[in-house]
């Protein structure tokens, strides 16, 4: 009960000042609350996803302007196929609309698109949109906008373990040589090195779970939860979440410098 009253939502902070030297290099976001945002306005769930896509555009530019190196967005999980067909179809068409309208802005802002997940299982039109965006932005060397599409952490780890087992079976690796680096290299975030692990993970809409997202990579991430639903998330909310992150003491299992 008291914990409830003491709990602070970073979004309640007004006009925060950020330390520009400590902007998290990799921010990952679980963009939750689209359906509830729509429902509270008596709109169909897909209206929430459409507004959520507009938020993606705004937050991409805001993160890039702040000097973030990688922004990973959980757009569709390996479990989201369980949703009604109409909603799945809409979510599959969103990357097509997004890239159709937004690639010129991405290029103007020097943002490179990457995608992690089982892309080959997506509908052909979605795959084409994604692959074209990757190709068109490949020379951009600013922020990486990394979409998790048909992504799930357990599936990613299973695939990674299979890759490593195959390397052992082929005699390229011994069991004793398997270490953290071997696992990092076998996961879908390998191409983001040296920023494979998020510094900050944000989940919107008041839910406080990981939902099969980047489970290996968030071992030492700071977790920030806000009640703000994704369609209402703004550049100011992002800054407030980063301010919360900057107030934390990251020790990575060690002790603070001043102790
Ligand atoms: C979870 O909210 C959100 C999703 C499953 C989809 C998120 C996708 C976007 C925000 C758009 C992505 C844009 C591109 C370009 C791919 P929910 O619908 O489960 O929310 P609820 O818990 O309120 O129902």
Commentary on this structure:
With 259 residues, the protein is an alpha/beta fold. It is globular, with a radius of gyration of 19 Å. 41% of the residues lie in helices and 13% in strands. It contains eight helices and six strands. It has a six-stranded parallel beta sheet, with helices on both faces. It has a single domain (22-246), classed as Decaprenyl diphosphate synthase-like (Undecaprenyl pyrophosphate synthetase, 3-Layer(aba) Sandwich), CATH 3.40.1180.10. The structure holds farnesyl diphosphate. Residues 31-36, 48-49, 52-53, 56, 75, 80, 91, 94-95, 98, 147, 205, 230 line the site of farnesyl diphosphate.
Concise account of the structure shown:
The chain has 259 residues and is of the alpha/beta class.
């Amino acid at each position: 009960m008291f914990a409830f009253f003491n709990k602070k939502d970073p979004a309640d902070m007004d006009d925060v000042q950020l330390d520009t030297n400590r902007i998290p290099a990799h921010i990952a976001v679980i963009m939750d609350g689209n359906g509830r945002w729509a429902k509270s306005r008596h709109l169909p769930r897909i209206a929430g996803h459409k507004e959520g896509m507009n938020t993606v555009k705004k937050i991409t530019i805001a993160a890039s302007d702040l000097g973030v190196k990688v922004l990973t967005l959980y757009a569709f999980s390996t479990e989201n196929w369980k949703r009604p067909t109409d909603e799945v179809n809409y979510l599959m068409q969103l990357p097509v609309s997004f890239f159709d309208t937004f690639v010129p802005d991405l290029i103007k802002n020097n943002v490179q698109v990457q995608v992690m997940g089982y892309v080959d299982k997506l509908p052909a039109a979605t795959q084409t949109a994604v692959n074209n965006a990757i190709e068109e932005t490949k020379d951009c060397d600013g922020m990486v906008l990394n979409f998790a599409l048909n992504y799930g952490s357990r599936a990613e780890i299973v695939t990674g373990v299979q890759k490593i087992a195959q390397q052992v079976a082929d005699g390229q690796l011994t069991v004793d040589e398997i270490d953290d680096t071997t696992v990092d290299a076998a996961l879908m975030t390998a191409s983001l090195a040296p920023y494979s692990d998020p510094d900050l993970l944000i989940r919107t809409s008041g839910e406080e779970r990981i939902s099969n997202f980047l489970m290996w990579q968030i071992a030492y991430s700071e977790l920030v939860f806000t009640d703000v639903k994704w369609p209402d998330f703004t550049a100011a909310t992002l800054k407030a979440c980063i301010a919360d992150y900057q107030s934390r003491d990251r020790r990575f299992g060690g002790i603070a410098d001043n102790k």
